């Protein structure tokens, strides 16, 4: 069924599907995962770990993530002997503070927002949605070639 992969996340105000990215420092998309919005980010991120290791392998030393990935996902990375660091603003600061490590992923998400098929979630299947994310990233990287 098509509706099995959809849900409602009231905290992030997302209705439908959420996307998770693993990108490098240049913004290249390595792994994308699309899931129902009512599923938690940490446990569903664990399904990406084997894909990360298959694509990157021994070169990966550290992964950055936000508070949602601090528990189960960090433990799964520890099993693969990968360091996990929570990218958070300093506790002494007040208000909005941009975090450099988190900004890399947010920048990649913003780049994909130029593609209508990605923003409006027209896809019936999750695999189709993931493939459109890869295609959008390929186009973005091809435009960067001088």
Can you tell me the CATH architecture?
2-Layer Sandwich
* Helical proportion, percent range: 25-40%
Strand residue percentage: 15-25%
Shape: globular
Unreliable stretches, pLDDT < 50, 5 or more residues?
none
CATH topology: Nucleotidyltransferase, domain 5
Radius of gyration: 16 Å
Provide a brief overview of the structure.
The protein has 146 residues and is α+β, with helices and mostly antiparallel strands. It is built from six helices and five strands, in the order βββααβαβααα. The mean pLDDT is 82.
Care to describe what's here?
The protein is an alpha+beta fold and 146 residues long. The protein has one domain: 2-Layer Sandwich (Nucleotidyltransferase, domain 5), CATH 3.30.420. It is built from six helices and five strands, in the order E-E-E-H-H-E-H-E-H-H-H. It has helices at residues 41-45, 49-55, 72-79, 100-112, 116-119, 126-143; strands at 7-9, 14-23, 29-36, 62-65, 83-86. The strands form two sheets. A three-stranded antiparallel beta sheet has the order 1-2-3. Helix 3 (72-79) links the parallel strand 4 (62-65) and strand 5 (83-86). The model has no long low-confidence stretch (mean pLDDT 82).
Topology:
Layout: E1 7-9, E2 14-23, E3 29-36, H1 41-45, H2 49-55, E4 62-65, H3 72-79, E5 83-86, H4 100-112, H5 116-119, H6 126-143
Parallel strand pairs: 4-5
Antiparallel strand pairs: 1-2, 2-3
Considering the chains and any ligands shown, give keywords for the structure.
5 strands; alpha+beta; Nucleotidyltransferase, domain 5; two-stranded parallel ribbon; 6 helices; 20% strand; three-stranded antiparallel sheet; 146 residues; 38% helix
């Amino acid at each position: 069924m098509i509706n099995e992969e959809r849900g409602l996340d009231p905290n992030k105000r997302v209705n439908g599907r959420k996307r998770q990215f693993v990108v490098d420092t240049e913004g290249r998309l390595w792994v994308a995962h699309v899931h129902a919005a009512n599923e938690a980010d940490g446990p569903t991120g664990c399904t990406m770990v084997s894909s990360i290791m298959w694509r990157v392998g021994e070169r990966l030393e550290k992964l950055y993530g936000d508070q949602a990935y601090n528990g189960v996902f960090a433990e799964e990375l520890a099993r693969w002997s990968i360091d996990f660091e929570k990218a958070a603003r300093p506790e002494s600061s007040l208000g909005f503070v941009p975090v450099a490590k988190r900004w890399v992923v947010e920048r990649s998400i913003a780049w994909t927002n130029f593609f209508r098929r990605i923003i409006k979630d027209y896809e019936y299947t999750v695999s189709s949605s993931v493939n459109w994310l890869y295609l959008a990233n390929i186009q973005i990287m091809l435009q960067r070639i001088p």
